[in-house]
Amino acid sequence: MNPIVDIVSTVAEATGESHTDLPPLLETIDPEAIVAFVDSAAADASLAFDYYGHRITVDGDGAVETAALSEAALD
After folding, report:
1. Residues 4, 5, 6, 12: what is their CA dihedral angle, to the nearest 10 degrees?
2. Could you read off the pLDDT of 20-38 as tens digits, one per residue?
3. At how many degrees (to 10) do helices 3-15 and 31-40 cross?
4. Sign of dihedral through CA atoms 72, 68, 11, 35?
5. Are 49 and 56 in contact (CB under 8 A)?
6. Residue 44 is inside which H or E element, if any?
7. How deeply is 11 buried, as exposed, middle or buried, from its count of CB atoms within 10 A (0-12, 13-18, 19+)?
8. Long-range Cβ contact pairs of 36-39 (< 8 A, separation 24 or more)
């Protein structure tokens, strides 16, 4: 399981865009920090950040969830 691939794939699927059309994740958060978090965090810990109009949550076990931000949150 690779949380970086999962994040980009999940957002691409949610937006209907190709993963190659999304902005680099590195412009939002350091991917190495995400991997380090998953490698060292307790399973019940979570990390959340916004990427390309979505709130991304990564659990300590590497599970990735995404939720679209409201239009108001994007303004």
Report:
1. 110
2. 999 999 999 999 999 999 9
3. 120
4. positive
5. yes
6. none
7. buried
8. 38/3, 38/62
b (16+ CB within 10 A) / e for 46-68 = ebeeebbebebebbbebebebee
Mean pLDDT value of segment 34-56: 95
pLDDT band at 71 (very low <50, low <70, confident <90, very high): low
Q: What is the pTM of this model?
A: 0.86
Determine the residue type at 16.
G
Sheet holding 46-51, edge to edge: 46-51, 54-59, 64-68
User: Rounded to the nearest 5 degrees, what angle is found at the Cα of 14, between the Cα atoms of 12 and 17?
Assistant: 40
Q: Are strands 54-59 and 46-51 parallel, antiparallel or unpaired?
A: antiparallel
